[in-house]
Amino acid sequence: MTVPVQSLRFADAREAADLAAFLGRLLHYDRAAAVRLQAGGGDALAVFGRPPSFEVLAIRTARLAGPATLDVTVSAGELLESLDAPAPGTEDASGTGGALPAPVTGPPWTGVLPPRGPWREEAGLPGPDALRTALGLAVAEFRTRDEALPDELRTRAERDRMGREIWSRQVGATGLPLRAVHAAQSLGFLRPDPDFPVSLLSAGGWLRLRTPFGSIALRRDPVGGLGGPGGLGLSVGRG
User: Fold this and answer.
1) Cβ distance 94 to 164 under 8 Å?
2) How far is CA 146 from CA 11, 20, 150, in A?
3) Measured in whole angstroms, how far is the alpha carbon of residue 52 from the centre of its chain?
4) Which H/E stretch holds residue 140?
5) Tens digit of pLDDT per residue, the chain (239 long)?
6) C-alpha span between 189 and 153 (Å, rounded)
7) Gyration radius (Cα) of the chain, Å
8) Contacts of 183 (CB under 8 A, 6+ apart)
9) What is the pTM of this model?
10) 3-state DSSP assignment of residue 160
């Protein structure tokens, strides 16, 4: 029987450690970050976060020890502190869970999650190596242009404008902005995996960059921003 949970128990220690690493990266960008947790009766837990620097939703899945029903928004920092996760690279298999923190009043994005689908695959996305190369070129361009700014234009506003111009560029003809790829790289999602390459999916007005380590989702219509119906249509191990 599936019952609402008061604590999180993961299938193994690696699931807890991977979630802890994801939460740590979110907190790097926002020390007050909140995450929305959803489990729809199976053993898949979806964790949604929104790193403010990228204006995207980041999604990480983890496999629970058993079926659970859960939909709650909590402090990312409190959740990280509650996890009994082993240190990365260790063989300790004892850390497989933690207490569920008290709910918090979520920011507006927690009510506008991607739809359940159906998701369909979009063509034209370059492979991980090409995406990382594009990111490197964009970072180099920003640094070069920043160094060339005259003193009167060395302002936060000008640097923000320049950053928006660079990171809003599309990846090929996919409609995916480069900032989504930047977010995937920064959150540890964009890593080589020959058994499951990155893919681009769409559902309604949403785009989703999927990797074996997590997903980045965003609205593709520039007017709506991060909007749309909530839902959960994710599978463990497929971001």
Assistant:
1) no
2) 47, 35, 9
3) 11
4) helix 128-147
5) 444 567 899 999 899 999 999 999 999 999 999 999 999 999 999 999 999 989 999 999 999 999 999 999 999 999 999 997 555 554 454 558 888 999 999 899 999 999 887 999 999 999 888 899 999 999 999 999 999 999 999 999 999 999 999 999 999 889 999 999 999 999 999 987 777 789 999 999 999 999 999 999 999 754 434 433 333 333 333 34
6) 35
7) 18
8) 51, 53, 54, 56, 58, 216
9) 0.85
10) helix
Cα separation, 40 vs 17, whole angstroms: 22
Which amino acid type is present at position 223? V
Q: Name the DSSP class of 13.
A: H
**Overall size of the chain counted in residues:** 239
Q: Fill in the amino acid letter for 186.
A: S
Q: Which residues sit opposite 44 in a β-bridge? A: 63
